[in-house]
Amino acid sequence: MTDMGETLPKVSVKDSAGNAVALADLNGPFVLYYYPKADTPGCTNEAKDFTALAAEFRKAGVTVYGMSKDTPAKLAKFADKYGLSVSLLSDEESDATEQMGVWVEKSLYGKKYMGIERCTFLIGKDGKVARVWRKVKVKGHAEEVLAAVQGL
Questions:
Q1: 104-113 long-range CB contacts below 8 Å, 24 or more apart?
Q2: Does residue 125 have a pLDDT over 80?
Q3: Which among 44, 102, 36 is positioned nearest to 69, based on CA atoms?
Q4: Sheet holding 119-123, edge to edge
Q5: CA-to-CA distance for 88 and 148, rounded, in angstroms?
Q6: What's the rounded Cα separation, in Å, for the pair 117 and 102?
Q7: Which of 144, 138, 151, 130 shows the shortest CA–CA distance to 47?
Q8: Please, which residues have CB within 8 angstroms of residue 97's CB and are 6 or more apart in sequence?
C-alpha cells in the first residue's frame, strides 16, 4: 500500500485519449484520486466537485488526475458528458491500482467482491506522497484536498 513519504509505482497507465502516462514521470505537486467507476452517482459528483475547484488547484500550481479501471474511451465520454476539466487516467490492467494498494475486498449486501477503494493521494514537488485520504466520502472531499494543497 502506497503511503506517505513513498513514491508512486513505476508503471504506465493511459489518459482518456489512449496515450501512455508513466505515473513516476508526472511532475508534482499533483492530486491523484481513485474512483470505482465512471458515470456512477458518487464518482460523477466527485469528478464534478474537483472540476468546480480546478481553477483554485491550478492557482496553487497543482494538477488533478482521476483514476479508474475504465477504458480510455469511456473516460473520454464521461469527461465530455459532464464537462470535466480534470485529467482522467485509465488503469485497465490494474498495475498501478494493485501496487498502490487500492484494489481491495469490498462488501455489498453481504456479498464480497474486489474493487477500487475511493481514495486520494497528494503528491508533493519531490514526487513523494505528502498525504493520503482513505475510504473517502465524496461530499466536501475536493474542498478538503484543496485546503491541504494550499497548505503545501
A1: none
A2: yes
A3: 36
A4: 20-22, 12-15, 87-90, 63-68, 30-34, 119-123, 129-133
A5: 21
A6: 5
A7: 138
A8: 34, 67, 69, 91, 103, 116
For residue 50, give the nearest of 125, 128, 120, 134 by alpha carbon.
Answer: 120
What's the rounded mean pLDDT across residues 110-131?
A: 93
Identify whether the C-beta of residue 62 lies closer than 8 Å to the C-beta of residue 30: yes
- The pLDDT score that the predictor gives to residue 149 is 94
Residue carrying C-alpha cell 491500482: 97
Least confident range from 1-5, 25-29, 123-127: namely: 1-5
Residue 43 bears catalytic tag: yes
**Residue 30 identity (one-letter amino acid):** F
Catalytic residue among 43, 67, 146, 149: 43
CA neighbor of 28 nearest in space, from 151, 149, 140: 149
Residue type, 88: L
DSSP string, 70-136: S-HHHHHHHHHHHT--SEEEE-TT-HHHHHTT-EEEEEETTEEEEEE--EEEEE-TTSBEEEEE-S-
This prediction has a pTM of 0.94
Instruction: Count how many residues are written for the chain.
Output: 152
